[in-house]
Amino acid sequence: MSTITAAMVKDLREKTGAGMMDCKQALTEANGDMEAAIEWLRKKGLSKAAKKSDRVAAQGLIGVISNVKSGAVVEVNSETDFVARNPQFQEMVQKIASLAPAAKGDLSKLLAATYPGTSNTVEGQVKDAIATIGENMGVRRTGALEVKEGVVADYVHNKAADGLGKIGVLVALESAGDTDSLMAFGRQLAMHIAAASPLAVTPDELDPAAIEKERAFYTEQALASGKPKDIVEKMVEGRLKKEFFQQACLLSQVFVLDGKATVEDAVKDAAKTAGAPIKVTGFLRYALGEGIEKKEEDFAAEVAKTAAAASKGA
């Protein structure tokens, strides 16, 4: 059997981030073979990750990257904000984000991509990180935008590090105008999107289910007034246009950086500066943890359950 030296343990620990005793055991199991020891730790990490997979991971970071004409956003979750502040976790999210543009919004493709500097996949690297850091983690979603001519601008809110934060936004501007001017305006527009949370660029792009939900709400209110059906229909359609569409659609919102003009007017003004018409072709807004059902802990019930179990075992 090969002699396992302290230097070998140190080397393996630096390469994998695993604990000292785990590294020593891995080298012992692998008879001193470094690559086999790394694989042994990886398999052990997968086992540890499985035990943590049912724990809710609603913290973490949004990673955003823009390459002028293309950009991507990714959400990587952890269980606690403490881990999100961990430099090791932040570096992992940045590297995953760097691969996201090539995945073009396909999560399975991103998870299967080779993690930079390793022979591991992104999915495998995350599972290894679970074993090392000790929390459930996961790459939850990714999206991408690109333009043939123009820019894809980005903005990160509650910034934790370069390209990382709690809210990430991309906005695509199609234009033949000056790139620097387009990017400057694009970032202002991305800041607006972060603050105003539009659902679509125009009414035509709104989810029909969302429109019907609002229509039903307005109809119920209007019918309660006792007005005739034909009047109710006109009232409902009017409110949809003046209230819901205006609030939900990007171009009709009041531009937050101005407070007076609409975003549509701001786009027209920016076009003058850029020297060419601008069309907003799309945007992505990722807010950390949105849509994740967080488990509510009932402390009293948990104590009662523990007490009951204890009494049965007595």
Task: Please tell me about this protein's structure.
The chain folds into three domains: 47 residues, Ubiquitin-associated (UBA) domain (Helicase, Ruva Protein, domain 3); 142 residues, Elongation factor Ts, dimerisation domain (Tetrahydropterin Synthase, Chain A); 37 residues, Orthogonal Bundle (GTP Cyclohydrolase I, Chain A, domain 1), CATH 1.10.286. It contains twelve helices and seven strands. The longest helix has 20 residues.
Key phrases:
314 residues; alpha+beta; Helicase, Ruva Protein, domain 3; Tetrahydropterin Synthase, Chain A; GTP Cyclohydrolase I, Chain A, domain 1; four-stranded antiparallel sheet; three-stranded antiparallel sheet; 12 helices
Tell me the number of structural domains: 3
Q: What is the mean pLDDT?
A: 84
- Which fold name fills CATH's third level, the topology of the largest domain? Tetrahydropterin Synthase, Chain A
> What's the CATH class label of the largest domain?
Alpha Beta
Brief overview:
The chain has 12 helices and 7 strands. It has 314 residues and is an alpha+beta fold.
Give me the secondary-structure topology:
Layout: H1 6-16, H2 20-29, H3 34-52, E1 59-66, E2 70-78, H4 81-84, H5 87-103, H6 107-112, H7 122-133, E3 138-146, E4 150-157, E5 164-165, E6 167-174, H8 179-196, H9 208-223, H10 229-248, H11 263-274, E7 279-287, H12 299-313
Antiparallel strand pairs: 1-2, 1-5, 2-3, 4-6, 6-7
